Amino acid sequence: MQPIDGVSYQGVPLTRHRDAIIRARTGRRLPEPPPQHTVTAANEMGWGVERERQAYDATGPRRIHVHTEDCPIFKGPFDLTAAQTLQAAAQPAAAICTMCSADKKITQLRQHSTPGTPSAPQAPVRRSAVGQRAPGHSRPADGSGP
After folding, report:
1. Angle formed at CA 107 by CA 60 and CA 97, multiple of 5 degrees
2. Got the DSSP string for 36-82?
3. Residue 9 pLDDT more than 50?
4. 109 by DSSP, 3-state: which?
5. Phi, psi for 68 (deg, rounded to 5)
6. Selection from 70, 74, 77 nearest residue 95 by Cα
7. What is the C-alpha to C-alpha distance for residues 38 and 69, in angstroms, rounded to an integer?
């Protein structure tokens, strides 16, 4: 190949990047970025946990801080779900950030029941003792009798 007269090749690389060559040979492409979502409710909000550094000879639990994604003091990853956030906030050494109102939002999460859990406590199921008749049965619970 011959250079074209009057064209500057100053910024053109002389060799291809190693990953580009591998992609050309194998046909592999980079994965698509994850879809961006808008945050509307407390249970859909991004949550993050900041873990404090601890000395190697410390005996207590490691202190953590729970933040929301609009926190002005924590810039870390906000990759926790609402259920994971509630578990993190329930740990003994957990502190909840008040700068981003995470304490109020966690209170809202605790008030709303999570899917799959009953909203009201259910009465315990009573079982009949062995040898006694259960209501609505003509035979004793242990199978003996008439």
Report:
1. 50
2. P----SGGGS-EEEEEPP--TT--SPPPEEEEETT-SS--S---B-H
3. yes
4. helix
5. -95, 170
6. 74
7. 12
Please, which pLDDT band fits residue 13 given cuts at 50, 70 and 90?
A: confident
- The number of CA neighbours under 13 Å toward the Cβ of 31 is 3
72-89 average pLDDT score: 86
> Cα(79)–Cα(7) distance, rounded to whole angstroms?
49
Higher pLDDT, 92 or 135: 92
Contact criterion met (CB below 8 Å) for 75 and 138:
no
Q: Is 125's pLDDT higher than 60?
A: no
Place of tokens 């970025």: 33
Q: What tokens appear for 98 in the block?
A: 């008040």
Place of tokens 């409710």: 41
Is residue 5's pLDDT more than 80? yes
| pLDDT average, residue stretch 4-15 | 85
Mean pLDDT calculated for residue range 90-99: 88
Query: Which of the 8 DSSP states describes residue 83?
Result: H
Query: 1 is written with which tokens?
Result: 């190949």
| Separation between Cα atoms, residue 116 and residue 114, nearest integer Å | 6
